[in-house]
Amino acid sequence: MKLVILGGGGFRVPLVYRALLADRSPGRITEVVLHDIDASRLAAVGGVLAELATDISDAPTVTTSTDLDEALRGADFVFSAIRVGGLAGRAADESVASGSGVLGQETVGAGGVTYGLRTVPVALDIARRISVHAPDAWVINFTNPAGMVTEAMSAHLGNRVIGICDSPVGLGRRVARAVGVHLEDAWLDYAGLNHLGWLRGFHVRGRDVLPDLLADTDRLESFEEGKLFGAEWLRTLGAIPNEYLHYYYFTREAVESGASRGAFLLEQQKRFYAAPSFESWDRTRLEREQTYMAETRDDERDADDLDGGGYEQVALDLMHAIASDNRATLILNVPNRTTLSCLDADAVVEVPSLVDANGARPLAVSQVPDEGVGLVTSLKVVERATIRAAISGERAHAVKALALHPLVDSVNVARKIVEAHPFLSEAFRA
């Protein structure tokens, strides 16, 4: 089977290839095509993959291409992990928002909207070209903002585009460790949007053990979300939120701490791409994982969360289930249908889904907590306003998308961001 990775010169591509190398299942990926618009980054990452494949006789073949149409032909799966504007764009998202006194994190608040405004047009073009050159391919979208981009691409690809994220499985893995079970033996009752979801239950052999965990402060505060939100607040909620909800529950503190990760990653990865090798990639990867959401933590990340097994494993499990018609349940970004009553059928949501050869279908879950309904519905309005603005190119729509976000507290701030952002001021002039 052929896998095309869009954004093939991206820093995290070796994680995907490493998972493919470890895969010994029937119907495994045998051909990988890396596509990127930057030939030098393709060469750097291709070199790292070659090192990873040393002495592995049946490693998937790897080719690179800067021609999208050529790369797509014959694809069975397309993995989209592009970053429009690169890390310089992310750094601009953060600094412009911060300069306007609001949160600039890349998928949350003003930063998420500005990232979406420049990404959606590119994602739509990719979706159109996939529908022409690889109409039978399944598209796995990891491009952020993942829910928004997946919903935009579905206009051309329908249910053949499925969004993934490593946050829910990371939360599930940490809760499983805290309660002393294997994640594979648990059912996660999880509901929301990408980077805006809640774990409502954690069922082991038919019993929900989440209430017991919430009552045990020591165990609850032994992992990241417990430390991040505090046992008292989690008990008040009666659920464990996705880590990104820290930016909504502790907005003032998040704004004051600043969000400069884009600038940090930009400088960090410049060093890797200047002298690429597996050793330098692995060292840089570890530093990247250690500093993930560092502004929200007072201590170091748990060592168990530094070794991957996140989005690349979700992608691999998803491909297995589709290619082998081997049913699996995964938390994915898929059309809502009738799953969450607060949203319409076409809204892309992040919920447990049943996957087989026919794709992914959302399963019945608990509803979003009452206090989260307003956030979820507001953010879906923002996502769709952002998609509309990105398609129309109209400045008024871009301002509207920003101004409607609950973490942007003024229409004037929204106008200022559009005018000040170097990646948007020209594109949204009219």
Would you kindly provide a written description of the structure presented here, covering whatever features stand out?
With 430 residues, this protein is of the alpha/beta class. It has helices spanning 13-22, 39-52, 68-72, 86-99, 110-133, 146-157, 167-179, 210-215, 217-220, 224-229, 231-237, 246-249, 251-257, 261-274, 278-290, 311-323, 370-392, 395-403, 411-420, and strands at 2-6, 31-35, 61-65, 77-80, 138-141, 161-163, 186-193, 196-204, 207-208, 240-241, 328-335, 348-356, 359-362. The protein has a 6-stranded parallel β-sheet with strand order 3-2-1-4-5-6, sandwiched between helices. α1 links the parallel β1 (2-6) and β2. The mean pLDDT is 93.
C-alpha termini separation: 46 Å
Q: Stretches where pLDDT falls below 50 for ≥5 residues?
A: none
Cα radius of gyration in angstroms: 21 Å
- Give, in spatial order, the strands making up the sheet with the most strands: 3-2-1-4-5-6
Please tell me the overall pLDDT: 93
Q: Approximately how much beta-strand content do the residues carry?
A: 15-25%
> How many separate helices?
19
What structural category arises from helix and sheet content?
alpha/beta
Q: Name the shape in a single word.
A: globular
Helical amount: 40-55%
Specify the biggest β-sheet. 6 strands, parallel
Number of strands: 13
Brief rundown of the structure:
The protein is α/β, with parallel strands linked by helices. 48% of the residues lie in helices and 16% in strands. The protein is globular.
